[in-house]
Design brief:
Structural class: alpha/beta
Number of domains: 2
Number of strands: 10
Order of helices and strands: EHHHHHEHEEEEEHEEEH
Bound molecules: 2'-O-acetyl adenosine-5-diphosphoribose
CATH topology of the largest domain: Rossmann fold
Strand order of the largest sheet: 3-2-1-8-9-10
Strand content: 15-25%
Largest sheet: 6 strands, parallel
Distance between the termini: 31 Å
CATH class of the largest domain: Alpha Beta
Length: 235
Amino acid sequence: MTDTMDRKPNLVISTGAGMSAESGIRTFRDAGGMWEEYPVMQVASADGFRADPALVHRFYNARRRDLFKAQPNEGHRILASLEDRFNVEVITQNVDDLHERAGSHNVLHLHGELTKVRAMDDPSLLFTLTEDNPDTDPHTVIDGHKVRPHIVFFQEDVPNFALATEIVEQADIFVIIGTSLSVYPAAALVRYVRPGVPVYYIDPNPAAVPAGIHVIRAGASEGLRKLAGILGVNA
Ligand code: OAD
């Protein structure tokens, strides 16, 4: 049994590509973003994968190689350190593993994970790729299975969304970081926050948000230092 006096507040964080920008991972929709260079529906949709699976494998191989060279940034580390004072739940649209590598323990990936591939004939069978063996193609067979990137393509369901909404419903504080809020259902998570719960949005170029959300116009690291101050934590 736990005493309610001992319970740490639930701090729920929703992150997007801007969270990893300071680690050198490109965002998607900023100037110079990924979708300026690559046609999104060719490399990141179910139709695109059916039409040219080799292209899609190559695209994610390149992203995976970039990720293996990247390191978590100060923002990722501040988020991990907030676990001393809060029950921190990270819900991320990012497919990188930088939250985990910075030490966050509870990370839910909405759009999949770049370091993993899954069996084409059994979506529950995941395989982890390493820096020594980072590439796959349509002919790659692991343990007898052809594989595909463990990525949620456009036109596919987001299997972890229901769980994410349950986590958001439990939030005592909700924070959105580095997302243009243009991809659904992820962008709708804020609607599941209980009335009266404070909501913060850290982004140097924030999207339009409903009144009542506290916008911190800053990059992830600077914004998280400010937020830690607001929450009374030394970061
Ligand atoms: P976007 O590229 O749409 O938005 C990135 C956001 O990060 C923008 O609002 C930027 O202002 C902000 N940003 C830039 N630099 C930042 C920094 N240093 N610190 C904090 N924020 C910064 O990326 P997402 O909203 O994450 O999905 O995109 C959502 C989804 O669209 C992705 O998960 C991906 C993409 O298509 C799939 O491919 C399935």
